[in-house]
Design goal:
The protein is α+β, with helices and mostly antiparallel strands and 91 residues long. The chain has one domain. Helix content is 43%, strand content 18%. A two-stranded antiparallel sheet has the order 1-2. The protein is flat and about 50 Å long.
């Protein structure tokens, strides 16, 4: 995940409430919205995310990145793929 640090600041949510307050926003609620998928193919969110990480982030060997994505294809064929993350709703 070190390669992804170039794209997204790792401490975004830890400092977000104070930054929003400083900008004039009143944060009254925060909820996590889980996102889970058991499939990996070109029409899925995680397929696009994996492609984005491989093409836009640096710091890893391309052969390793290709092997990482190929593992997802293999897991999909075995019906063993799983991806989960949380999205956050702030109000």
């Amino acid at each position: 995940m070190c390669a992804f640090d170039e794209h997204a600041h790792g401490q975004t949510f830890r400092g977000l409430p104070s930054r929003l307050k400083k900008a004039g926003f009143e944060l009254s609620r925060c909820e996590a919205i889980p996102f889970v998928t058991l499939t990996y193919h070109p029409n899925t969110y995680v397929h696009g995310l994996a492609r984005f990480i491989v093409t836009k982030c640096t710091g890893f060997v391309m052969e390793e990145a290709d092997a990482w994505r190929n593992e997802f294809d293999d897991l999909e064929k075995q019906r063993a793929f799983f991806y989960g993350t949380n999205r956050f709703m702030l109000a």
